[in-house]
Specification:
four-stranded antiparallel β-sheet; binds flavin mononucleotide
């Protein structure tokens, strides 16, 4: 698919059919995350592919936003392996994991897999439920699946500010 088509047409799917994601497509999605750039090339991300009944139930306990997706990627990062920026107030963890997640979200659409980025949950509660290592922080969840028939993008998908509102030339 054309890159411009991917970024224009990808939308947040909030109604999955439950149809499985093929292994080959999952591999393409994970590979796109693997190729993402990270600060100092630290690659501190860790992706958990959740598709077991037990894992999905743990996710349903912390968020109402799985929308029947048959698979959820939990994107985490190792908080002890991040680059602290000059000034000492911020580090690369959230940004690096966000870039990884964005690559995977776009790769999913390119592969014909629908997705939804989810942050409506308590990351610490989920990390405990999934028994993640202490040093790993969860950034987000990526619901993955095939949209149920008739599902369309929500109206706000096509409502974006004009460039003049968000870009300033200095
Ligand atoms: C950082 C982020 C967090 C989001 N969290 C949630 C969420 O927890 N639950 C949900 O249903 N949608 C969530 N979304 C999806 C947004 O609601 C959706 O992206 C936005 O309304 C724009 O629609 P579009 O993605 O279809 O263009 C999230 C999106 C982003 C980028």
């Amino acid at each position: 698919m054309e890159f411009s088509e991917v970024i224009r047409n990808r939308y947040s799917c909030k109604n999955f059919s439950g149809k499985e994601v093929e292994k080959e497509k999952l591999d393409q999605i994970l590979e796109a995350g693997r190729l993402a750039p990270t600060a100092k090339n630290l690659q501190e991300q860790h992706i958990y592919v959740v598709q077991s009944e037990k894992g999905l139930a743990a996710i349903d306990k912390v968020t109402p936003c799985r929308y029947h997706a048959p698979m959820v990627l939990v994107v985490a990062y190792n908080k002890n392996n991040v680059f602290t920026y000059p000034g000492g107030k911020r580090d690369s963890g959230i940004e690096d994991a966000s870039i990884v997640a964005t690559h995977m979200m776009l790769a999913a659409y390119n592969a014909g897999v629908d997705s939804c980025w989810i942050n409506f949950f308590d990351p610490e509660e989920l990390a405990r439920a999934l028994d993640l290592p202490e040093e790993e922080e969860i950034l987000m969840l990526l619901d993955l699946g095939i949209a149920a028939e008739g599902t369309e993008a929500l109206p706000n998908h096509s409502s974006r500010k004009e460039l003049a509102e968000t870009v300033t030339y200095l």
